[in-house]
């Protein structure tokens, strides 16, 4: 198998995206177009977390 | 992106066994805690067993967790919230996908998924497709009647996620689908083994089109065990001049397994996302040793809306002892799903698995792809009738075919059969799950 970037480094970046998307979601309660897309981003971030072995 | 990367997830798919076990235990604790705190159904079940999340500290503890089966899921559907019942772990407004089981064994089970769950479904399928060589640049044709059954929906979304171009072949008949494959020059497709064989037959006999010239290079099969039955796989591969791969999944579970490009004679369990336990059919004792068939109990670690924890899938499986040459550390199940515990039946005191009959029928040149097995009883004597079709050009060889067929069936199943030959095309064709096995003894038993 090829060498890959340290999953912990990738997880750090993912956590920053999660924080930003979560903030967007909370801020956009009255703005469906932003709010629902933030929910979708969070689902995608969750898949990245699972792919990096998140078990928390 | 490095398309030469063999694994969709080169990190998880190559974890050591110790790392995988650690991950699995952590994830089991998490999903157990989630279900215990969010689902009234699971809470009742676990309280009755005297279990709380704090009790789950080892794999031995996991084996104390009560199993769930399909009949239990059917029962809770009568409870609120409609239509799912009280195993639902999220507010109803977070559910964005409805699917249901086919209902072949009774009232269908409804399955709710949030958008995150649906992302998870396609993520699981992305492991499948990447392992089988799907890459950006592939044009994937999906000859599937998009409907309430999950079947290839998630395969569609996963192919998109990978970066393939997807051509949905929904409301087209078989001939129109074949023409569309030719028109768009599709390179891959997904369907049941029965339909893959049926499409090839339609192309050859009704359209005078050679399926091997259509340019399909890989086919992913699901819904039936055929792609892991050597003779059926061989028929499909030669019919299409394509690599054929198996995948097993289920509505209530998810897409939990895949055959990889090495075609190792089995399917990998996605052990980072699922826990597969195998239990002895009679005693229920756990089976860790390779080569011993048992009943699969499965947990999906990351499915949240309606969790799947220690689900008794009634699938028969066994571990392979050899590691896969592909380099993945996810264990292999030898021969894929070997059958359904419900389908294994005793005939004349001998256990008969329908897959064994299929293996024999499709290994014999001169027989068509279709067959039917009918078991009944005359007085106290069980009888098995096998209906097969003679392939065109073999009509004058019925006697010799019958001899070979009976010998092989005796060898592989230890049983004698009455053989009934039909002209080619006379037995029923199936587009989805085929019904080739009928036990009239059970049907008459259940009659009023």
Estimate the strand proportion of chain B. 15-25%
What is the largest interface, and how many residues per chain?
A: A-B, 17 and 26 residues
Helix % of chain B is 25-40%
Beta strand count of chain A: 0
**Terminal CA distance of chain A:** 27 Å
Low-confidence stretches of chain B: none
The overall average pLDDT of chain A, rounded, is 94
Radius of gyration of chain B: 22 Å
What oligomeric state do the depicted chains represent? heterodimer
Largest sheet of chain B: 5 strands, parallel
- Specify the number of helices of chain B: 12
Tell me the structural class of chain B: alpha/beta
Tally the beta strands of chain B. 20
In short:
The complex is a heterodimer of chains A (56) and B (448). With 56 residues, chain A is mostly helical.
How would you describe the overall organization of this protein?
The complex is a heterodimer of chains A (56) and B (448). Chain A is 73% helix and 0% strand. In chain A, helix 1 (7-27) runs antiparallel to helix 2. Chain A has two helices and no strands. Chain A has helices at residues 7-27, 32-51. With 56 residues, chain A is mostly helical. With 448 residues, chain B is of the alpha/beta class. In chain B, helix 10 (354-361) runs antiparallel to helix 11 (398-413). The A-B interface holds A 1-2, 4, 7, 39-40, 42-44, 46-47, 50-53, 55-56 and B 2, 4-7, 9-12, 14-15, 23, 26-27, 30, 114-116, 118-120, 123, 272-273, 302, 327.
Task: Write the topology of this structure.
The complex is a heterodimer of chains A (56) and B (448).
Chain A: H1 7-27, H2 32-51
Chain B: H1 17-38, H2 40-48, H3 59-62, H4 70-76, E1 95-100, E2 110-114, H5 115-131, E3 139-142, H6 153-162, E4 165-168, H7 174-184, E5 188-191, H8 193-207, E6 218-221, H9 230-240, E7 243-246, E8 257-258, E9 266-269, E10 274-279, E11 294-300, E12 308-317, E13 332-334, E14 339-340, E15 345-347, E16 350-352, H10 354-361, E17 367-378, E18 381-390, H11 398-413, E19 418-422, E20 437-439, H12 440-446
Parallel strand pairs in B: 3-4, 3-5, 5-6, 6-7, 17-20, 18-19
Antiparallel strand pairs in B: 1-2, 8-9, 9-13, 10-11, 11-12, 12-14, 15-16, 17-18
Helix pairs in contact in B: 1-2, 5-6, 8-9, 10-11
